[in-house]
Amino acid sequence: MAAGTLYTYPENWRAFKAQIAAQYSGARLKVASSPPAFTFGQTNRTPAFLNNFPLGKVPAYQGDDGFCLFESNAIAHYLSNEALRGATPQAAAQVLQWVSFADSEIIPPASAWVFPTLGIMQFNKQATEQAKEDIKKVLGLLNQHLNTRTFLVGERVSLADITVACSMVWLYKQVLEPSFRQPYPNVTRWFVTCVNQPQFKAVLGEVKLCEKMAQFDAKKFAEMQPKKEAPAKKEKAAKEAAKPQEKKEKKKEEKKPDPEEEMDDCDAVLAAEPKAKDPFAHLPKSSFVMDEFKRKYSNEDTLTVALPHFWDNFDREGYSIWYCVYKYPEELTLTFKSCNLITGMFQRLDKLRKNAFASVILFGTNNDSSISGIWVFRGQDLAFTGHFWEGEIDREMQCPGPLWAIPGKIKCWNRFQSMLDAQP
Ligand SMILES: N[C@@H](CCC(=O)N[C@@H](CS)C(=O)NCC(=O)O)C(=O)O
Hints:
The chain has 424 residues and is α+β, with helices and mostly antiparallel strands. The chain contains 18 helices and eight strands. The protein has three domains: 3-79, Glutaredoxin (3-Layer(aba) Sandwich); 85-204, Glutathione S-transferase Yfyf (Class Pi), Chain A, domain 2, CATH 1.20.1050.10; 316-421, 2-Layer Sandwich (Alpha-Beta Plaits). It starts with a strand and ends with a helix. Residues 225-265 are annotated as: Disordered.
């Protein structure tokens, strides 16, 4: 069974393919997507990283045995099991067919249409209209194929479903409003089935289908612009310029906007990072330095150093402590899968890193386990609530933006007052 680390940035749909495959196969996958383990734009430019992954691109996988792999489809394939890869030569070839289809037929028009709506690419009417037509063709083909099938290949989820569904996540979230997707009911039925599988959910969180087609946001685009000049972009532009001329001469590309004006999804990650609203900005400054505590917790003995530091410095006005219990222990089967649930949740809450601390633990054995944990949040309210969450407190989700995919199924949040009261 494969075991290793996936280097990526948070919420990278290319990495999702490998992460979901690992959920199915049981491959033990650690995800390094935030400092100190990995900083996109920095770690992937270091000589050590380039030594293993010469392109410096993510996702990139390194096995605990030292085996290195780049290209998201290859990584997802490696982390799959036989059932996902296709158990017969025919099935395996069909899986490869759909993986290639996603890359060549879905990703280019999906990016051309969706990126301007996210403010990460200049709007070009002609390119957007062409992309919509291309996507209609894709949806028509898929709708026909899925007319008599539940999944793309065979009777079970395969890497074909994982790859194609991941390549369509942004389409479904951002632009495929009900009237646009109405002629393709089989595709939506299939997509919803996929993203609701526990293995998908553990990675993607709740995927909310688009209600109104997002449009180009000129203001957002203008705000993003200064970042285009970041060194990462300049390097990329230089790389583009160095590419052989014939690439640019392709007929189809004539309709598209100047590549210099475009950002791809990784540029977008870099550009979007500092723009994310800080949901804790309104809170007064706290004397408790979360980073300092986390350093002690990570590097020193918990009982003799980290915990005394915590109680000596904890700011009761600026922070609160909570207890959580997983809502559906009866659904917990193999312990490695349950551990993946916890890891998946933490990855999606990466943006809370500076404002929260948690220790969430799986207790028990296979088919007889429960999950519970302790959280420390900035402020006196739950940092994430809303309709995904049930419990004592239920109000609108505070955490904005598409990067905040909040997992469901945890309830019973109670102020962990007794812990505070017990303190001398
Ligand atoms: N075909 C590759 C694409 C990987 C890719 O383009 N990664 C981008 C992030 S979206 C990257 O790491 N770029 C870093 C750079 O260009 O320096 C895959 O599917 O893994």
